[in-house]
Amino acid sequence: RMKYEPYGQLLPRKISLALLKSHRTDAADYTRFVDPSVDLTSCELRWSSLLVGSSSATPITTPSKFQRKANPCVSSQFDAVSTKIDSYLASMYEVDSQDDLTLLHFKLGFAGFSDTFAACTSLIDSLTGKTTVAYTYSNVTQCEYVWGTQEYFESPCCSAEKAYTQCCS
């Protein structure tokens, strides 16, 4: 079994949570959970079950506010997170139970959403340009013949030997 080792962001006497604003699985599947025009610092988190502080048995009933904080990119911390992610990915092929795989998946997600990793990937994205290049290929066709027939072996669209000396049109 894999030994459980929480990622470094879990701290004693702290509650860590993340708010998923949107989710995309592919180009066609996109779900937005929070309107982008909403300032999250104006939102409140209300606890629906009993939550008590560590110093007393008095329930916490006050809503919690979201706070915006600056997360500087620290390269040594980013390297440490990247190393952890690489080790998790490498060990995916070594797990032998569904529970271990689930735990590894959780640890990967947690590392990927860490403040350090998010700050550095955001910085990297802002410094790099993204362009889409479209290529148009002309005179490209498919082989229209069945393999093994005379037409197949004589067509430069099917036969690599004929394509070496002739164009497929």
Mean pLDDT: 76
Strand order of the largest sheet: 1-2
Strand content: 5-15%
Shape: elongated
Low-pLDDT regions: 1-8
For the terminal residues, how far apart are their CA atoms? 59 Å
Give the biggest beta sheet: 2 strands, antiparallel
Q: Write the element-wise H/E pattern from the N-terminal end onward.
A: EEEEHHHHH
Give the % helix.
25-40%
Give me the count of strands: 4
Structural class: mainly alpha
Please specify the SSE layout and strand pairing.
Blueprint: E1 22-24, E2 30-32, E3 44-45, E4 64-65, H1 75-91, H2 98-112, H3 115-127, H4 150-154, H5 160-163
Antiparallel strand pairs: 1-2, 3-4
Supply the key terms.
two-stranded antiparallel ribbon; 5 helices; mainly alpha; elongated; single chain; disordered N terminus; 4 strands
Write a structural description.
It is a single chain. This protein has helices spanning 75-91, 98-112, 115-127, 150-154, 160-163; strands spanning 22-24, 30-32, 44-45, 64-65. The radius of gyration is 27 Å and the shape is elongated. It is mainly alpha-helical. Helix 1 packs antiparallel against helix 2 (98-112). The longest helix has 17 residues, at 75-91.
